[in-house]
Design a protein that fits this description.
Elements (H helix, E strand, L loop, with lengths): L12 E4 L2 E10 L5 E9 L15 E4 L4 E6 L2 E6 L3 E4 L5 E4 L4
Antiparallel strand pairs: 1-2, 2-3, 4-7, 5-6, 5-8
Length: 99
């Protein structure tokens, strides 16, 4: 099942085994692409499952703490203020291994 940004609305949230998320905005970019902004909280010691998406790329920005990112087998550690772009089709996950 393909989940689209139009399936979300601001204020949508969920608690998951790894943490939680809240949708803060949805819309279209100037070039017409859909977007969905979420605040994602990854609990200490938790990791999200490996994923890949055929229909979207992602941009992750760290607002607090340290985020471990694995993207196409490459591991990166991001700190507050840093970001990473996840390309279309890349196998990726995020984890909170530091807090």
């Amino acid at each position: 099942m393909k989940v689209q940004s139009s399936d979300y609305k601001p204020g949508d949230s969920d608690i998951r085994p790894w943490g939680s998320y809240e949708v803060t905005g949805v819309g279209k970019t100037p070039d017409g692409a859909d977007y969905c902004d979420k605040i994602i909280v990854v609990n200490p010691g938790q990791i999200l499952s490996l994923q890949s998406h055929k229909h979207r790329q992602e941009l992750w920005r760290v607002t607090e703490g340290v985020l471990t990112v694995i993207c196409d087998g490459e591991r990166k550690t991001l700190k507050q203020g840093q970001s990473v772009s996840i390309p279309l089709g890349a196998v990726h996950c995020m984890a909170n291994l530091e807090d």
